[in-house]
Amino acid sequence: MIHIMMKDMERACVRIFEAGSERENCNYSVMICDGIPAGVIMHDFFQKIGYENFTIYIPDRQRERIWLHMEAIKKIHSLK
After folding, report:
1. Does a structural domain hold residue 15?
2. What's the pLDDT score for residue 59?
3. Which domain holds residue 41?
4. Is 49 a member of any domain?
5. DSSP H or E stretch at residue 26
6. Which terminus has fewer CB within 10 Å in the chain: N or C?
C-alpha cells in the first residue's frame, strides 16, 4: 500500500472539523477545470460527515473574475 503525504493535510482536516463545530458556512470553488469537481467533492464530503451548513460558491465567469478576490469574499460573508 502506498501512502502519499500532503503537506499540512492533518492541519487542513482539523480546520474543517473546527469549522463544522463552530457552524461556519462556506466553500469557495474557482471556475476552472478542477475547481468545479473540487467543489463537488467537498459537497459530498460535508454531506457524508453530516455537516450541512455550507455553501458552494462558484463565481460567475461573466460578471466576476474566476479567482478568489475581495468582492467575492464580501459577498460570501454576507451569506452568513
Report:
1. no
2. 75
3. 25-78
4. yes
5. none
6. N
pLDDT of residue 1: 46
pLDDT of residue 31: 64
64 DSSP 8-state letter: S
CB 31 within 8 A of CB 61: yes
Place of cell 463544522: 20
Query: What is the per-residue pLDDT for 30?
Result: 63
CA of 15: how far to CAs of 8, 12, 19, 60, in Å? 11, 5, 6, 27
| 61 in any annotated domain | yes
CB atoms within 10 A of CB 29: 20
C-alpha cell at 28: 469557495
The stretches in the chain having pLDDT less than 70 are: 1-5, 26-32, 65-67, 79-80
Our count of domains for the chain comes to: 1
- State the chain's maximal CA–CA distance in angstroms: 46
